[in-house]
Input
Amino acid sequence: MTSTYLVEVIITNKKGVRDPEGETIHKHLILRKGYASVQSVRTGKYLLLSVNALSGEDAIRIVKELCEKLRIYNPVVHDIEVRLRG
Amino acid sequence: MPLSHAEIDEIRNILRREPTVEELAMFEAQWSEHCSYKSSRLLLKLLPTEGRNVVIGPGRDAPAVKLFKDWLVVFKIESHNHPSAVDPYNGAATGIGGVVRDILTLGAKSIALLDMLYLGDPRNPHANWLIRGIVKGISDYGNRIGVPTVAGDAWFDPAFNTQPLVNVACIGIVRPEEIISSGPSPGDLIVIVGNATGRDGLLGSSFASKPLSEDVDKDIGAVQVGDPLTEKLLIDAIEVIRKRRLAKYVKDLGGGGLTTAIAETAADYGLGAVIHLEKLHTREPLTTLEILVSESQERMMIVVEQSKLSELVEVLENYDLMYSVIGFFTDDGVIRVFYNGSKVAEVPAKELAKPKPIRRASSPPMEALKGLKPLYSLPPEPRYDDAILKVISSPNVASKRWIYEQYDYEVGIRTVIKPGYGDAAVLRLLDGTNRGVAVKGDANPRYTYLDPFNGAANAVAECFRNLIAVGSRPLAIVDELNAGNPEKPEHFWYFEMMLKGVAWMAEELMLPVVGGKVSFYNEDHTGRQVKPTATIVGVGRVQDVTKTTTIDFKESGSYIILVGVTYPELGGSEYLYRVFRLEEGEIPKPRPCSELRNGRFVYKAIKLGYVKATHDISVGGLATAVIEMSILGNLGFDIDLEKVFAIGAQRIDEVLFSETQARYILEVDPKAINNLLKLANRFGVKISIIGRVTDSGEARFRKRDKTIASIDLDLLRDAYRESLSREIEGGI
Output
């Protein structure tokens, strides 16, 4: 019996890789408007997939596989987080 | 590439002591192939670099050529092959960033980008991913800095599946009196402007100066992310700095980072420098070594007189650009680097900037014999309807719409001839006159693979023809030689032959090679080199942009004229590869005298208004050229191959698909035909009236009354327009 799972994918640049978009939002918007408590901003890409699978783990496995095979992200540059929306 | 033992000994000799780790890192960065040209420098001297239009030749970040009395054109080519193989999106994007900053160093305004892409088989999943990322990276970066991508070249070949060639060029214009070129003097301050320095791009040039490792993950330090927002601020700030004459010298911090920028500037002007590293703005805590060789993007060095510093700072702050004053130039030729008061490096600038050139061993591999083999037994002639469709739908011939439609090619409203409609792009100067500049980039990896000398010469000639075909006068070129591993004699031979081919043809066509770039180590992790490729970008002078010519047929009833002589030259042709999978044989011979004679004739004929459409003949031969004109003009044609002035051709395909050089197709109004014939006679040019433009909706080749091929225009149009997109989008 399969059921439908919501799987979230979050792709961000790796820690050592810059994120100019995040830096711009941080410096030119947030800090400029006075939110000095914000230390940094990182942006990324968010995907929400609705997957028919046998279990949550199975849904995650399917999504992880497709992200790699279809090159939704570049393992050299990006970190990827795949999780169930619960 | 780490320094060799011999190089470390050499450094000990220069310093007369043991080098510090910082000094070693500086030498490693600067003496890398990428920065120092140590393997290529001796041979590069063969290139003709002078001419009456050359204002600044090779040596600076970008050359400048006189376009008109009151305008200079500044243009440069760069490769970002290695970064694009690891991270196609950012690799290609930062390539654009770098070449735009090179143009900026002379104070020129960037008006156009070109991309010459030599990519893998679109049906290979890895290559497909690289293709998409590269095109998107160029598109996004160009768009965000507001510079249109107007022209280029694209080629698809499995040899580039893991290591693509991403060659990009930028064209800028500047008034001669406003160019930033006075040069630094002792006491002038060194200001680093732009992005904060980080660990990204650490020793990127060393990375580009070695083969790709199998585990690219280890090269994470070499991944750089483009920041077009900062780039745009740099562009705008430097425009103000140029107008207010606040800078004596500007240089990009590219390969080799801070070390290279300072070493080369000091060495070029016989200066030394004092640098205080702790003053540099950094993104994170960095070691002195990291600061010296980081290749963080979007950084530039501005040299300013002490008295003008406050004015410069005001401009930079106005644009919200980060900057630091890190030191000054001295007159003693020694670069001294300090960190919080203690000296970490002390090296002579000249010796650091220019390592001893190396004359590399060079010898042709057995494989090179393929290009010497005469085609004495061709496969039987195919059905020509099929063969034509196969050639027209080849990704190397078919429309590159899939690529250029992702680009913003009109931003800035300068673009007169749009991508796909002319042999070259034409841009307005927008100075109240009709004057403009034509630009084009060309290469044929198959030619240079089979015969690097003649193949590279043909690339120069094709660029020349493309500039002529829009009605411009070719002025100068820059070259990018993409080769394998210089330490392998059988790779280096290709580089050497390509270089000699460019040098020879450029000299013959009187096109100075005002700048260029060499990219070595284009091999995969198994040590196989990609197809060695000589990319040529040229600029031409356009007196009146309203009188330029495009490819498309304009009117039914016009005569179709073939300029030049056709020889049976099918070796290395797209036809042989596409129809028979053959990649061998003598490639078409370069014909410099014919190029000049025919080129001058076509230029004159366009100028006199005899010509309604022009197209040069290159990949795919005569058949491809007329079909492209037909598809773009939405008009048919009727051509009698018997009329083609062909020498020695024994088969139809030797006329239809031969890629003989120095040829053009012209569309000529019947009323102008007599004048054109007279002009051809006067120039001593062979021309043949081969047929007429028709409104029959059909592309027809015949031999007297016998139909050779007759194809519906709609079918051809579909193949030409959609094939590349089908390969890329539907191929997996």
Notes: Residues 214-219 of chain B have pLDDT under 50 and may be disordered.
